[in-house]
Predict the 3D structure of the following.
Amino acid sequence: QVRLVESGGGSVQSGGSLRLSCSAFVYSFSFYCMAWFRQAPWKEREGVATFDITGSIYYADSVKGRFTISQDNAKNTLYLQMNSLKPEDTAMYYCAATTFACGSLSRSQYNFWGQGTQVTVSS
């Protein structure tokens, strides 16, 4: 059983920052590979950032240089630091976990999802 709970969303102006957190209620957090996804209204859910099994990090091109993913295994928590936010970053942000597709930013590879946290960036 895996339960993921996101927090930290909110409303900011363009150029601002937010830090999202995802608390994972699991038996062994390090067993799972984690990722952040987002879904804007009327758009497909897209991968934002993730790690592979070696710890290499992958970002969507649209967030490279602005977003940073990190993980604290001692706290069972995944983070997404978002800087230089743009209106096009406005979306519901989801934390996801997989047991078999580390390093993937494909939605279909993840079998556990949080409920999401809303991020709204105004111009």
Observations:
- DSSP finds no helices and eleven strands in the chain.
- The radius of gyration is 13 Å.
- The chain has a mean pLDDT of 95.
- Residues 29 and 96 are 12 Å apart (CA to CA).
